[in-house]
């Protein structure tokens, strides 16, 4: 028993005391030395890198320094890749191209000589806002000439298209357009007083574009030969004003070629009770401006009758001897009054237009009701009157 105890104890002590401790100390020393050594090497490498970059960026750059530093090409390569991925929008490209062209034009202005004469809007003959001038009348008159009916002429106005020899300083179309907008703004205030249903919209929302629809026309001139604007409730029929030289300026109101459903509704209301429409077109003021309320021989224009699209025979399903056959033959329900150029140039022209619009107002309201009132409602009104 004593021998077994003496033999086992030294072996356990030898395992604990001799082997583990030296190994731990050596491992710790190695780790410490490895940890401290890279710090010095990293600092030396950073110093070398800074010197290389400094030499690369210096003015005394030689062939050797171009080859040695590697980080710089990597940066340029990455930048090139990132720039290649980003694409600029078409708007930015157009702005950049326009800027470049403007700079080239500015540089060329001092070196090149402009050949030709640029004639623009006359400085004389201007009128206060709310009036039409002779200059605008002459400008629209030139629109009949195909040589002048193009964008280049409207912007620069070459001298061969100008009747007068007055030198001018800004595009004539812009001056004429501004004059028309001022007139429309003043006329809107006047027509609102006689027709409260007309909304007080700005000129840009009521004037028509000067561009023509040339898709299905043999005449490919891009611009109309006059200015025009419409004053009405949204989606309803109203008053139309057109300014055109050659004594062709007009003010009109009504429904031109209404759709199939609208025309059917109007005719249905005429069959049931045409009294309101006949009373309006027969008033003395209405007859004074637009003529007698009955068809004229040989299809002459008078009142709402004599339009080009008027039927020669009774509509389908209507007896030709119907008591209101004259109204039922109409496909358009509109009236027009024309003005001379001298009347258009008068300072009180917008007031005169407002007076005519006041006569048209009941007619416009009647048509709007006849196109929108349901048949059952019209029957109730007729029964109540009886």
TrEMBL record:
- Which spans does this entry mark as compositional bias, Basic and acidic residues? 48-57
Give the span(s) annotated as Disordered: 1-112
Q: Write the protein's name.
A: Uncharacterized protein
Q: Which organism is it from?
A: Schizophyllum commune (strain H4-8 / FGSC 9210) (Split gill fungus)
The record's annotation in InterPro entries points to: CHP02453 (IPR012808)
Tell me any Pfam family this protein matches: DUF2461
* Acidic residues: bias regions: 102-112
Q: Do you know which NCBIfam families this protein is assigned to?
A: TIGR02453 family protein
């Amino acid at each position: 028993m004593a021998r077994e105890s003496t033999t086992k104890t030294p072996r356990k002590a030898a395992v604990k005391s001799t082997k583990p401790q030296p190994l731990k100390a050596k491992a710790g020393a190695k780790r410490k030395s490895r940890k401290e050594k890279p710090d010095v090497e990293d600092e030396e490498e950073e110093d070398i890198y800074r010197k290389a970059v400094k030499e690369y960026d210096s003015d005394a750059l030689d062939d050797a320094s171009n080859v040695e530093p590697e980080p710089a090409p990597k940066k340029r390569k990455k930048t090139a890749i990132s720039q290649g991925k980003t694409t600029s929008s078409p708007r930015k490209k157009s702005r950049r191209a326009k800027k470049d062209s403007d700079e080239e034009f500015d540089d060329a202005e001092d070196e090149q000589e402009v050949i030709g004469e640029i004639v623009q809007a006359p400085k004389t003959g201007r009128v206060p806002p709310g009036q039409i001038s002779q200059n605008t009348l002459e400008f629209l008159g030139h629109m009949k000439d195909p040589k002048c009916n193009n964008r280049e002429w409207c912007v620069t106005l070459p001298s061969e298209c100008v009747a007068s020899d007055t030198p001018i300083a800004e595009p004539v179309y812009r001056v004429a357009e501004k004059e028309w907008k001022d007139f429309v703004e003043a006329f809107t205030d006047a027509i609102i007083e006689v027709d409260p249903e007309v909304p007080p919209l700005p000129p840009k929302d009521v004037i028509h574009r000067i561009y023509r629809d040339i898709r299905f026309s043999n005449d490919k001139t891009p611009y109309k030969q006059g200015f025009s604007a419409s004053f009405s409730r949204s989606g309803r029929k109203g008053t139309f004003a057109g300014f055109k030289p050659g004594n062709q300026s007009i003010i009109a109101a009504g429904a031109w070629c209404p759709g199939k459903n609208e025309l059917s509704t109007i005719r249905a209301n005429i069959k049931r009770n045409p009294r309101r429409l006949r009373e309006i077109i027969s008033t003395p003021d209405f007859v004074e401006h637009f003529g007698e309320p009955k068809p004229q021989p040989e299809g002459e224009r008078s009142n709402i009758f004599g339009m080009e699209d008027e039927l020669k025979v009774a509509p389908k399903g209507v007896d030709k001897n119907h008591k209101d056959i004259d109204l039922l033959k109409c496909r358009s329900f509109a009236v027009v009054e024309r003005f001379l150029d001298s009347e258009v140039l008068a300072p009180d022209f917008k007031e005169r237009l407002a007076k005519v619009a006041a006569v048209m107002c009941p007619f416009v309201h009647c048509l709007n009701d006849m196109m929108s009132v349901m048949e059952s409602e019209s029957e109730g009104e007729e029964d109540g009157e009886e």
